[in-house]
Write a structure and sequence with these properties.
The complex is a heterodimer of chains A (242) and B (261). Chain A has 9 helices and 10 strands. Chain A is an alpha/beta fold and 242 residues long. In chain A, the strands form 2 sheets. Chain A has a 6-stranded mixed beta sheet with strand order 6-7-8-3-9-10, with helices on both faces. In chain A, strands 2-1-4-5 form a 4-stranded antiparallel beta sheet, covered by helices on one side. The longest helix of chain A is centred in the C-terminal third of the chain and has 18 residues, at 170-187. Chain A starts with a strand and ends with a helix. Chain B is mainly α. Chain B has one domain (41-260). In chain B, 89% of the residues lie in helices and 0% in strands. The longest helix of chain B has 40 residues, at 41-80. The radius of gyration of chain B is 21 Å and the shape is elongated. The interface between A and B is medium-sized, with 24 and 13 residues.
């Protein structure tokens, strides 16, 4: 379970996250929605300690990760998967080595076992047979799916996805959102998605929070959000063709 | 007005001290990794090959030309005193004690140091460094240390090569222009270079290689501002390493001369 208490973050004197309080249950598909520049990615990076808050606590399974040093955070992050907006694949490595990296670093698996894991992860994201290609030879959507394969290869307890469908055509966006949901349900992984893609993520999420100017403007199930009388929420979600 | 200037000066001093502190902390982290034996030898050797090959052609051309220029200039001056037999001494000592380490280091900064900084900078700009941390891998351990160690291995090899080629260049001019035999040039060269001269040059080289590796990696890891930032930080890495090498050369030369003469 993830518990976020009074999270505050400033960048150059500007409050980017303003007193965020959230509880995310184990195995839940949680989506944080909001427009561009509202602090979604900053929020996500705080959850695994890539950024330190100016104030507040982040408890993961009862442990506050905010006071931890980078060395300890590196160990904790081994249990997490993180999908970056652009995939963040290492462009000097082929796809095989990109996927093999976390396995080689954190496990004692031999080459044969690594090869099996990579094959399975690529099958999960429906990209079999691209092991020898380099990231520059793939489309944006394919890079995101490879990024997703890398994020799930060690079957993480927590999967974090930063704008997984941005910049994709509707069909590919839909395919990726279905894929993330499938992985969440099959692997029973707690999944946190930050996105402005209401169409693909509203209906599939167990819990939705709306962030506006660094504050949580609303939180609840899709039905609770739909019933909201708040003008901002109505503008962002209800008027959207869900 | 005066207060405003004082404020600016104060900010610059704080920034400089902050930067120094971060670089010292960065070096400390590298030392901890080395002491913990977190050295990835295959990656180090790949980097040695890439960084060494990257600067090899330029070092060769520059060394040959410098050796030849030294011989030409030495011949002009020494001819006035009828002392052309000292050309070999002048060329070889200049190269081994000073020009070899400094010239090679400056070329190495321009070719390989810039490569390190730009590569790591581009990785920072494309979130690859962040991805390394998100995967639970220390970027310094995974990407930085191998490059710093590669500098420490590659630069002395290049300096040694530079000295050989530079002396060869000087020999070409001396033999063809001054009618001094190859045997005579080589025997004078061997007689004039003491082990202390060679070791002194190599100590400076190793110190320079650490400076270059640390500064270029540090700047690469701290790149921000997208593709424009990559250019800015790479330029800063090259400029800062060059200045530090030149200043450190003076200080180290003074120390080495005071100790060994």
């Amino acid at each position: 379970m993830i518990q976020i208490k009074n999270l505050i973050k400033y960048f150059d004197g500007k409050k980017v996250l303003d007193d965020i309080n959230l509880n995310i249950n184990t195995g839940q598909f949680f989506t944080l929605m909001g427009g561009s520049g509202q602090g979604k990615s900053v929020f996500l990076q705080h959850i695994i300690g890539l950024l330190k808050p100016d104030k507040g606590s982040i408890y993961i399974d009862g442990q506050d990760i905010v006071p931890l040093k980078e060395k300890n955070l590196l160990e904790i992050r081994r249990n997490f998967g993180y999908l970056f907006q652009e995939g963040a694949l290492f462009d000097y490595m082929n796809i095989y080595d990109n996927l093999a990296l976390p396995v080689r670093e954190h496990t004692t698996k031999d080459d044969r076992e690594i090869s099996i894991l990579i094959k399975k992860a690529l099958e999960e994201v429906e990209l079999s047979g691209i092991e020898q290609k380099f990231p520059s030879q793939l489309s944006v959507g394919m890079r995101k799916r490879v990024g997703l394969a890398r994020a799930i290869i060690l079957q993480p307890k927590l999967l974090l996805c930063d704008e997984p469908t941005s910049g994709l055509d509707p069909a590919t966006g839909y395919a990726i959102s279905c894929l993330i949901l499938k992985l969440c349900r099959e692997l029973k992984t707690t999944t946190i998605v930050v996105t402005h893609d209401v169409i693909n993520f509203f209906d599939i999420s167990d819990c939705i929070a709306i962030i506006h100017e660094g504050r949580i403007a609303a939180i609840g199930t899709k039905d609770e959000i739909r019933k909201s009388e708040d003008e901002l929420i109505r503008r962002f979600v209800i008027n959207h063709p869900i | 007005m005066f207060k405003k200037y004082l404020e600016i000066l104060g900010k610059e001093i704080i920034y400089f001290l902050h930067l120094c502190g971060r670089i010292i902390y960065f070096i400390f982290d590298c030392c901890v990794l080395i002491l913990n034996k977190r050295i990835r030898m295959p990656q180090v050797m790949t980097q040695v090959y890439e960084l060494g090959v990257n600067a090899f052609a330029m070092v060769t051309i520059a060394a040959l030309a410098t050796g030849m220029v030294l011989a030409v200039q030495a011949a002009v001056v020494l001819n006035r005193f009828g002392a052309t037999e000292y050309i070999a001494k002048l060329v070889s000592l200049s190269l081994v004690r000073e020009l070899g380490p400094v010239l090679t280091s400056l070329i190495f900064i321009g070719k390989s140091g810039a490569k390190i900084s730009a590569e790591l900078g581009a990785m920072s700009a494309n979130e690859q460094i962040l991805a390394t941390r998100a995967l639970g891998i220390d970027p310094l351990d995974f990407l930085g240390l191998s490059r710093i160690l590669a500098c420490i291995i590659a630069l002395p090899i290049l300096v040694f090569w530079c000295e050989i080629i530079g002396i060869f260049g000087g020999m070409l001019i001396t033999v063809l222009q001054e009618n001094i035999s190859v045997f005579s040039f080589l025997s004078q060269t061997i007689d004039s270079i003491r082990m202390v001269d060679f070791i002194g040059g190599m100590i400076k080289t190793i110190f320079f290689s650490i400076l270059i590796g640390v500064v270029c990696c540090f700047k690469g890891f701290n790149t921000s501002g997208g593709s424009l930032g990559v250019g800015k930080f790479t330029t800063e890495a090259v400029a800062l390493s060059s200045i530090l090498v030149i200043v450190a050369n003076f200080l180290l030369t003074k120390i080495i001369i005071n100790i060994w003469g």
